[in-house]
Amino acid sequence: MRPTRSTSNFTRFAKWTSRMMGRPAAFAAAIAIIVLWAVTGPLFGFSDTWQLVINTGTTVITFLMVFLIQNTQNRDAEALQVKLDEVIRSIEGAHNALLDLEELDEHELDRIRFEYQKLAQRARRAMRQGKADTGVPDLGAHGAD
Q1: CB of 140 within 8 A of CB of 118?
Q2: Residues 13 and 39 in one domain
Q3: pLDDT of residue 1
Q4: Taking Cα atoms as reference points, which of 63, 66, 40 lies closest to residue 51?
Q5: pLDDT tens, 23-60?
Q6: Intervals of the chain under pLDDT 50
Q7: Domain ends where: 67, 90, 113?
Q8: Measured between alpha carbons, how far is 140 from 145 in angstroms, rounded to an integer?
């Protein structure tokens, strides 16, 4: 099964904007706009309108960028989760209950995290005693099986 590429105009726009705004040229353009605005201060007598122009412009751009960045972050996080799920699924002996953990409620996630914290503590104690911390130790009776 071959995944299909998203054809949503918003998705394409969000990806393109994210790529463009993350480049050094975008940062340089932002600096140039600020410098241009600052240089025009004396020309406009540092008026309230002059200040309002930069405040309004930066507020509107920031407001819109929040949504574009969130869209990109959500898509990247979902893709990463699917990749991690595939790694877990493909490793023999891995706990398949760990697939799709992000969908669990907070209580269940905390319970599983606690089991892994106990496992890490046991491994650190073993290392301090000169033992190896590798292998596939049991998670215990309340593990993520």
Answers
A1: yes
A2: yes
A3: 58
A4: 40
A5: 999 999 999 999 999 999 999 999 999 999 999 999 99
A6: 142-145
A7: 90
A8: 9
Q: Which two tokens stand for residue 41?
A: 């201060």
What pLDDT score does 45 carry? 95
**How many domains in the chain?**
2
Do 83 and 102 share a structural domain? no
What whole-number distance in Å separates Cα of residue 124 and Cα of residue 139? 15
Domain that holds residue 67: 1-90
Q: Long-range contacts: 2-5, Cβ < 8 Å, 24+?
A: none
| Together in a domain, 64 and 5 | yes
**35 and 74 inside one domain:** yes
- Alpha carbon 126 to chain centroid distance? 34
Residues 141 and 103 in one domain: yes
| Residue 130 CB coordination number (10 Å) | 6
Assessment of whether the complete model's pTM goes beyond 0.85:
no
End of a domain among 43, 59, 90? 90
